[in-house]
Amino acid sequence: MEALHSPAADPAAASPADRGEASSASPVEVRSVRVTVDSPERMRVLGRALAERLRPGDLVMLTGELGAGKTTLTRGLGEGLGVRGAVTSPTFVIARVHPPLAAGPALVHVDAYRLGGGLDEMEDLDLDVSLPESVVVVEWGDGKVEDLSEDRLHVLIHRTSGDTDDDRREVTLHGYGPRWADADLAGLTAPDAPTA
């Protein structure tokens, strides 16, 4: 795993506008961190480590192509948050709520892939109502949910392209807004996965 660094030191950690990505007139990026993950199990371990830094009211957006590991990361988040139910892709139900097994926030897992519009089309999901008490994770949320909160964590997952069996992923976390200004993302790594 690589240590994480500041956005100013890394051109790959530029703001969404600098990378040509859609973004709303929203808060300034305050943290950027990159981690290399080399297996699905280590992606889950990264999710568990990230869950330790999450709290009720956090909005996490996941971006990556099909099969990049968004749901695997979310499965690790669910394990780390200690929520009920198997975390699977909510593609056909759009959203699943996983209540906590003990004290802690629920996990609301949304797949916005089939939703064409922005926040207006997502209003029926009542994410704005769920957000204060839950951790809301939205796959494919770019251009659709940024207005839910001025504070958000945008996680981009890039995998090796082309014909390859390589499981290596570059995971870049971009924190926006005051919530992430003091967050300990710099210490975030995906420790070695347990061996069987």
Tell me the layout of helices and strands.
Elements: E1 29-37, H1 40-51, E2 59-63, H2 70-81, E3 95-98, E4 106-111, H3 119-122, H4 127-130, E5 134-139, E6 152-159, E7 169-176
Helix pairs in contact: 1-2
- What Rg is obtained from the alpha carbons, in whole angstroms? 16 Å
Residue stretches low in confidence (pLDDT < 50, at least 5 long) are 1-26
Helix proportion range: 10-25%
Strand proportion, as a percent range, falls in 15-25%
Which structural class matches the secondary elements?
A: alpha/beta
The counted number of beta strands is 7
Strand order, main sheet: write it out: 1-7-6-2-5-4-3
State the end-to-end distance.
20 Å
What do you see in this structure?
The protein has 196 residues and is of the alpha/beta class. 16% of the residues lie in helices and 23% in strands. The protein is built from four helices and seven strands; from the N terminus they run E-H-E-H-E-E-H-H-E-E-E. Strands 1-7-6-2-5-4-3 form a seven-stranded mixed beta sheet, covered by helices on one side. Helix 1 packs across helix 2. The N terminus is likely disordered.
What's the quick description here?
The chain is an alpha/beta fold and 196 residues long.
List key phrases describing it:
196 residues; alpha/beta; seven-stranded mixed β-sheet; 4 helices; 7 strands; 16% helix; disordered N terminus
